[in-house]
């Protein structure tokens, strides 16, 4: 697309044109030529949406719960964008679960935009393009953006880089889920939800979660306030010393997504966490951390692309590897040689800055 066409696309997206939004996300996902200019143009129009990440193991009921949460927000008059990050097809790289036809609340509702995206092999279930897709939804004026990801244990930390609040779903009586939490995903959750709470084992799973949170350092016990569930530890610190109330105690909620039970409490807990981030200044801290992670990711990708281009110029990695296999050189020398032009350019820039 030409620069004029890109500007027109951005203007249409900012005006709320859903076709322009869909086209922008497609360009972002495919990394089409010029997509960076489009995202850059949108960047100044972002920062208003509440971004919620929903993750958990397969079968925990994420899609059903997200559907109910979307319906709750719509009943409250808010617009919602949903990015559903699905397992990649090993053959096409596409999203296996397609367009999420199970999300009934989105059908025929112009206030809801649902898009499935492929994980593209990322272990955390969140493609690099997802962060840019969230920016597009934010710039388009959606009040809420929900990112639902495939559960992949501790690698799910990628969600944190996109979401303000991370909701972790666990199903009752699942030892595998508890082990997943112990493996590291416990550290990224801001709100924990035991879904299918009408099944046997729910109370035990809730107790296990709260015990793990206590061992981690947070109380994990919850009460229901005017915005839903909040941590008892936060309530106690409010009474003792408001200045010390910098930590968030993740609540453990129970929901039954198929009936909508507990969804209002979940929405309240998400709002409570967002309020906490704003009041303590953590919102800006998270935004800065996301920006730093994004910069590093882009730098790694761009550097890798430059090196791949240089490898192709030299006959491809197979030709270079052949020389290593023949003991004509070694991997370290090859790497130093390939990166030498980049280092030289950086040295020249430093010399110019020092001059």
- The tally of beta strands, per DSSP, is 9
Architecture (CATH level 2) name of the largest domain:
3-Layer(aba) Sandwich
Oligomer: single chain
- Poorly predicted runs are 89-101, 218-243
Strands of the widest sheet, in order across it, are 3-2-4-1-5-6-9
> What does the average pLDDT come to?
82
Terminal CA distance: 40 Å
The CATH topology name of the largest domain reads Rossmann fold
Q: How large is the share of residues in beta strands?
A: 5-15%
Largest sheet: 7 strands, parallel
**Element-level helix/strand string:** HHHEHEEHEEHEHEEHEHHHH
Give the class-level CATH name of the largest domain.
Alpha Beta
Shape: globular
Helix content: 40-55%
CATH superfamily of the largest domain: P-loop containing nucleotide triphosphate hydrolases
Put simply, the count of helices is: 12
Quick structural summary:
This protein is of the alpha/beta class and 355 residues long. It contains twelve helices and nine strands. The strands form two sheets. A seven-stranded parallel β-sheet has the order 3-2-4-1-5-6-9, sandwiched between helices. It has a two-stranded antiparallel sheet with strand order 7-8.
Characterization of the model:
It is a single chain. This protein has 355 residues and is an alpha/beta fold. It contains twelve helices and nine strands. It has helices spanning 3-14, 18-30, 35-43, 62-75, 128-139, 175-182, 202-216, 232-240, 263-280, 282-313, 317-325, 331-354; strands spanning 50-56, 80-86, 112-118, 144-149, 165-170, 191-194, 222-225, 228-231, 252-254. It has a seven-stranded parallel beta sheet with strand order 3-2-4-1-5-6-9, sandwiched between helices. Strands 7-8 form a two-stranded antiparallel sheet. Helix 1 (3-14) crosses helix 2, helix 1 crosses helix 3 and helix 2 runs antiparallel to helix 5 (128-139). The longest helix has 32 residues, at 282-313. 40% of the residues are buried. Mean pLDDT is 82; it is low at 89-101 and 218-243.
